[in-house]
Amino acid sequence: MGKLKIKKNDTVIVLTGNSKGTKAKVMKVFPNDNKAIVEGVNMSSKHTKPNAANPQGGIIKQELPIHISNLKLIDPSTGNATKVGRIRDEKSGKLVRISKTTKEIIK
Description:
Layout: E1 11-14, E2 23-30, E3 35-38, E4 43-48, E5 58-63, E6 66-67, E7 71-74, E8 81-82, E9 84-88, E10 95-99
Antiparallel strand pairs: 1-2, 1-7, 2-3, 3-6, 4-5, 7-8, 9-10
């Protein structure tokens, strides 16, 4: 299990499945499962009984996790999909993510 290259609040593009080509924001990442929940992607209908939070009950649409390998990061500077690399920052000594295409640091 390696370090994931996609983090929460990243903008990604979906590479496969029903939502192929969708650009959206990552809402949550599950590193142990190599999955992420992406806004508006991999939607599922869940039937719920009436409860305190939802007195009406009914059908609720919700996102299900999608595998990290089916996502590609969008480079914030260019707006295109890019591979992600990691290098050690000279100033702080910490590992930072970089775009493989532009070699710029991804915040």
